[in-house]
TrEMBL record:
InterPro entries per the UniProt record, alphabetical: 6-PGluconate_DH-like_C_sf, DUF2520, NAD(P)-bd_dom_sf, P5C_Rdtase_cat_N, TM1727-like_C_sf
Domain DUF2520: from-to ranges: 126-250
Keywords, alphabetical: Oxidoreductase
Domain Pyrroline-5-carboxylate reductase catalytic N-terminal: 2-88
UniProt cross-references to Gene3D superfamilies, sorted A to Z: NAD(P)-binding Rossmann-like Domain, ProC-like, C-terminal domain
GO molecular function per UniProt: oxidoreductase activity
Protein name: DUF2520 domain-containing protein
Pfam families in UniProt: DUF2520, F420_oxidored
Top-level division of the source organism's lineage: Bacteria
Keyword match S-adenosyl-L-methionine: no
UniProt keyword Acyltransferase present: no
Length: 259
């Protein structure tokens, strides 16, 4: 399959390097030509930064840009790719909004967190596909199965719900790790001491209901410990962390004690 990537960020980089093993990456498009060249050199593709340079012989165009940019980007390239299937990689953008722009649109959404520094296990990464036409859905399903053992045909609403849950499971939990590091850094305590706890907590929720795995002073209703922690945060003048601590503790208590 001949594939063009729109974008040269984290998602585009992982997709291009992985898909490039079995498919031809034709072009890498980025407004920043240096970024396009850096990725294109990795996958033996042409780097471009103008819509009129797009190759119309491309079978599939993957738009891997920020969610808010997707409609405008597809609007800008659709004229130059009248027959190509154009898909985005967003968990939150509805397919319906794109169908008004281009006749062949779809979704190729990997539920994963991407960084330049780490490889991704694509075989275990859930991939969600959606398309405006049955033939295109079949094509995306086959492509997804070439990467992952976990491929799902979900609706836009299901995918948006999953994306919301992913923000809690990934983005918010990572911010909790960041807050934990701020707390120990302030007293020159080694953050790596928390690593076994972090890993075990993550492992437990993969085999059991997170509600059943909840522990801690808020779940027990241990007001003495809650007050002590609040005092420590007050002394350190971290009112922002104190507010979050109280809010999350209250939520945990209600979840386990109020019906």
């Amino acid at each position: 399959m001949r594939i063009t990537l729109i974008g040269a960020g984290r998602v585009a980089t992982h997709l291009a390097t992985t898909l490039g093993v079995e498919h031809q990456i034709v072009q890498i498009f980025s407004r920043n030509l240096d970024h396009a060249k850096a990725l294109a050199n990795q996958v033996n593709a042409q780097a471009i930064n103008q819509s009129e340079q797009l190759n119309q012989q491309t079978d599939l165009v993957i738009v891997a840009v920020s969610d808010q940019s997707i409609p405008a980007v597809i609007q800008s390239i659709a004229t130059y790719l009248p027959n190509s299937l154009i898909v985005h990689t967003s968990g939150s953008t509805s397919l319906d909004t794109l169908g008004q722009i281009h006749p062949r649109v779809g979704v190729f959404y990997p539920l994963q967190t991407f960084s330049f520094e780490r490889e991704v296990d694509w075989s275990e990464t859930p991939l969600f596909v959606e398309a405006s036409h049955a033939d295109d859905l079949a094509l995306l399903t086959v492509l997804a199965h070439s990467l992952s053992n976990r491929v799902y045909q979900y609706s836009s609403k299901q995918r948006q719900t999953l994306h919301l849950a992913a923000v809690f499971a990934c983005n918010f939990s990572n911010y909790c790790y960041d807050m934990a590091k701020q707390i120990v850094d302030a007293e020159q305590v080694d953050f790596s001491l928390l690593f076994p706890l972090i890993v075990e907590t993550a492992n437990k929720v993969t085999v059991s209901d997170p509600k059943l795995m909840q522990t801690g002073p808020a779940m027990r209703g241990d007001q003495n410990i809650l007050n002590m922690h609040s005092q420590l945060l007050a002394v350190s003048q971290r009112e922002d962390l104190n507010k979050l601590y109280e809010l999350m503790s209250e939520g945990i208590f209600k979840r386990h004690h109020l019906h």
